[in-house]
Every structure is written in C-alpha cells, then in structure tokens.
Amino acid sequence: MPLRARTAGCASRPGGPEEHGAGRPGSRPRSRPVTWHAGSHAGAAQLTGGSRGPAGRERGDRRAMAGSGLWFSLLLAAVLAGRAAALWPWPQYIQTSESHYAIFPHNFQFQYHVSSAAQPGCSVLDEAFQRYRDILFSSHSWQPPEPTRKQHAPEKNSLTILVVIPGCNQLPSLESVENYTLTINDDHCFLLSETVWGALRGLETFSQLVWRSPEGTFFINKTEIEDFPRFPHRGLLLDTSRHYLPLTSILDTLDVMAYNKLNVFHWHLVDDSSFPYDSFTFPEITRKGSYNPATHIYTAQDVKEVIEYARLRGIRVLAEFDTPGHTQSWGPGVPGLLTPCYSGSHPSGTFGPVNPILNSTYEFMSTFFLEVSSVFPDFYLHLGGDEVDFTCWKSNPDIQAFMKKQGFGNDFKQLESFYIQTLLNIVSAYGKGYVVWQEVFDNNVKVRPDTVIQVWREETPVHYMKEMELITKAGFRALLSAPWYLNHITYGPDWSEIYMVDPLEFKGSPQQKALVIGGEACMWGEYVDSTNLAPRLWPRGGAVAERLWSNELVTSLDFAFKRLTRFRCELLRRGVQAQPLNVGYCEQEFEQT
Q1: Which of 59, 69, 218, 316 is within CB 3.0–4.6 Å of 103 for a Cys-Cys bond?
Q2: Is 387 part of the annotated catalytic residue set?
C-alpha cells in the first residue's frame, strides 16, 4: 500500500475554522524523514490551511518562508490552538486549528493498523500504549458521560498506529530513524512512522496535545505534524560514582528523557570516588571499590533492567569506563593496576593513573572490556581519556626508563597516547566502536576514522567551537557537551544560555557540520544525588533537548519560555519534581484534592 495511506479509524466532524501552520525552512534533514512524498522533505510551515498541495510546490512554499517574519508569525499563531502551546520539543512542521475533538478514557484506545509491521505482541509499543494511557488518564478522576448527555464536539475513540519497518525486538542505535507523522482531523486519528522509535516519539507528542477542560473532559485539537530530529545523538550523562544513584532514580530519569525525546543515556558508571559496577569477572574491584558492596552497586540484573527500560523508551545506553585517569577506585581490587607514586627515590604510598607500561595492565583491560562488551549491547562504548594527571607518572623511575626506551623524551602525552591506542585496539577487536573525550584528539592519539569525539572543556564558546571545527576538519564525528553542564547552577534563568547554544555555530564546511551528530547534557555528581537530581535536571535539560531536536531557527526565548513553562507544569503533573523557570504557577495547583 502507498506509504501516504491513512485509516478512517476516528469519528468524522464538520469542517472547522481556518488552520494555522508552523514549522521549519527547507534544509535537508539529517536522516530520511517520514513524509511519504516523492523527493526530499523540506519540513517547513504550510502557508494556508486546507488540503496539501503537490510535494514540490509545498517544499517551495516552505523554503520561501525561511528567514521571513511570516515564518515566525505563523510559528506563534500555531500555539493559539489548544495544547500546541505546551509542545516540547517543538516539531519540525505543525498545522493546527481551534477545531477540537472529545476523548473519553473509557472509550479511547491505541490500536495497530492492520497493515502495520508492528502488531499486538510488540513489546515496545504494547508497553507504550499502557504507559501513555496512564500518563493521560490515570491521574485524573473522571466519570463516564451520561448516555443522554449532549456532546458539543465529536469524539475520537482511538489513535491508530502504522509502523512500516519491523523491529519490535531490536535495540535503538545511532542509525535509528525517529521520524513520524501525526494526523488528527475530521477523518483520521493516525500515527505513521517508519520504525517503532518514531512511533514512540509520536506517542509522546500526542500525549502533549491532549488537554482537559475545567469540566473534566479531555480534548485534542485538529492537528497535522510531520517531525524528525535535527541530530541523531541527543544524550544525558549521569554520574553514578561520586554519588550513588538508586536504580529508581535512573529509571525515573529515563522516563523524563523520553518525555523530552532524548535518546542516549550516557552512564558514567565509575570514577575515582567509587566503583559501583558489579563485575562478575573481577568481583574484588566492586567489593573494594564501591561505597558499600551490599547496597551501593549495580548488579547484573540492575544493568539489564536499565538497558531494557531504556530500550522500551527508544533510549540507548552508552556505558563509560574512563581510563587511565579517574581510576582510584579500581586500585584496591586490582593490585598492580595503578602507578605507584614516588617522593624522591622512595614510594610515597600513593597511587596515580593506570600503569601504562605493564603487560598485566593490558591483560586486565582485555579481560575486563570483554565482559563490558558482552554486558552492554550498544555498538559504542565510552572510553573516557580525559584529565590525566602526569605528576605520578613523572615521579616513577620505571616509567621514566620506559619513556627513554620508547623515545618519548619528557612528553608524557606520548605515553598517554601509547596507553589509549593500545586500549582502543583491544576494544576494536571486540567489534565495538568508541566515544572518547576531547583530550584523546588533542593529544594526537591515532584513532579509527569512525571515532566519536566528545567536546567538554568549559572554556568560552570561542574555545569549544574552535575545538568542534578542528575535530570535524580532521574528519571525525563530534558531540558537544561543553556548554551543557547542568550540575553547574547560577542564580537566575540560566536555561536561556543553555537554550541558545547551537552545536553548528563554528566555522566549517557543510561536510564538517554533517559530522556533528549531536550533543549531551551532563550531570556530574559532586553535589548531586537522588535528593536534588530531578529539580536540577528539569526543565533545564529540556533546553538541551529542544536544541538537539528542533529546527535551528526555533530560537525565540519568549516562545520557548511560554512552552517550557507549560511543559514544566506537565512534568509536575506526571510526578517529576521539576524546578520553576521564574515566578508563576501551574493550573493544577488550583485543583482540589
């Protein structure tokens, strides 16, 4: 059947008022969008309501709006209708109107189209259907309408989902397609996507469009959305070493990531402070390196649960084991792994980074990363490589002798490169790709062409954008994190500074900018644990999420503030302790309990 086909699974109604449209100009999407028209998709706003014209004319009309005041006027006009004002992140194309349809929980259902590649038994969508029923309806007390009650709006009793490509049992990946088309009109209530991952994003958008009247009736406005992410890697880092985060905190965070359409959980599992990963190959490293091996570890079952919980929300789990620095917690359980530091000609009794000159070091790393590669199924592992303090290496006479033998002189960056290169070769042999922090690139370590470099050093925008330019000029893919350290807080609305960063705002060719695959917000754990994790993350993390999902022209702070404020209220309704952006209130505060 043609991909543009729809199903008549919803009630029809008379025509409504003129529609408002908003969207994006005609830049090429990073991945093939779900538009189901011939040719490439432009994804910008439609100038008029009514039926869609031929694909070519539609794209031309959208391109004509790029950079114009009309584009932004339509953008603002779109949010006048229903719950579009609360959409976060903002979709690539939206057309909506004041016409609306009633939804009654006792009648409403999510259902598969008969031609969908996903059918009942699809774990990703079956679970999502129940999850979104709970999100939409379970927190409200409602009464079924009386049989004789006169309805002022036609009813929509189902959302029909059609997925084109099978994949219910797969894991999301960097190449996953997340595009979707959502149509709510007189004839249809329909979600079309290439994959289950796009269907998940569309279900989230649908949930944000549903609104509740003061009388308690649910409604959804007449809407057409075509949407896809600007970047394929939209991540959040959690540090579970400096403060152990209970499993429930991680799972709750994954829920909110899905609400924000973030799709990579960067799990910074271990660091100097503690080693909470429960290694079955080297149990002593966990027993001696964790804060408490009885309570403050992540067991094999915990890790499996996180990976599956994330998968069901279209989120990858990118595990990080940072070496050769940040490894003090490794030492007690692996004798000889860390470098003995010297005071003059005698050992000082302290230890520095991983000892890079011993064969036993690489034997351990080979065995350990074989385990890690089997536990974490994502193609990529994060291997760290940042902030290596050379002081201990410089003090050690054995390392000094090794440096001389290798011809490294006094350049300890070469020694670091020797270690990193050997480790990368080990991990590559297990069929894994890798992400590393920017120092690996800065120190000229020879890495594979498909290596992903993550930019984190928090200098000025001039510095980190220059780093993005250099990395992509060398032909490597890049992730930006430097301006998005959410553990850093200041008095006032710092979300706006987070929001206004564009990962492509550096000098470079189109080919270079195509190598930027996205970015990550980072929540380091020195001053963050389960007591303050959620309010420090949200809704500020949403600013990063929209920057990585929405069109580059969606930059109005006023427009974002209105929507993010309402989205924050929606997060509160969903049980997320999201902090306020400024003075104000949420409507649900007035509801009597």
Answers
A1: 218
A2: yes
